[in-house]
Amino acid sequence: MNEFIASIKSATASLHTQLEQSEISNVIMSQLVTEKAYAEYLSRIQCMHEDIEKHTFPIIHTIIKDTAQRTKSTAIAADLDQLKYASAVNKTFLDAAHSPDLNFNLGLMYVTEGSVLGGQVILKNIKKQLGEDIASRFLNVYGQQTGHLWRSFLIQLSEYQSTLSEKEKMTIIDGAKYGFERVYSILM
């Protein structure tokens, strides 16, 4: 693992653990998960992906060349439609602390792209508990390409960060920390 990627992982480890231990994360990973709880989870993270696609993608597309392949909000909307779940969640992912800085937004992207890997773990439990036919476009949004797209993202990020000062690299880490904090806030 690249030293910089390892430093992001280390700097965000406690936030990642906090997120995994949130009530909704525990519910969707348990034997007691219900279709309603799963739909609620999807509805809460929908705002994250909508905001990232609308605000972050235009900022980072010169560095992460394949952002068009990385959309997730339409998959979430299709899953919610299939589940016949009308979201009552009125949350915003990006808040006043969000920065339009390129490096900060690359940190945000680290969180959202990493969530696709976590989605694979969630997918196994959701299908086991709720059945193979459960709406799961989002959890398997990249399908067989999940590992490839994650590695591609890390390569693009690593190549770019090698041109940066330590302060600029810290801005990427700050964006990742912000991303984890915001995900936690929308899941609460």
TrEMBL record:
Residue stretches in coiled coil: none
Keywords annotated in UniProt: Oxidoreductase
Pfam families reported in the protein's UniProt record: Heme_oxygenase
UniProt key word Ribosomal protein: no
E.C. designation(s): 1.14.99.3
InterPro entries documented for this protein: Haem_Oase-like, Haem_Oase-like_multi-hlx
UniProt KW Zinc keyword: no
Enzyme class: oxidoreductase
Origin: domain of life: Bacteria
GO molecular function: heme oxygenase (decyclizing) activity
Entry's Gene Ontology BP terms: heme oxidation
Name of the protein: Bacteriophytochrome heme oxygenase
Gene name, Swiss-Prot/TrEMBL: bphO
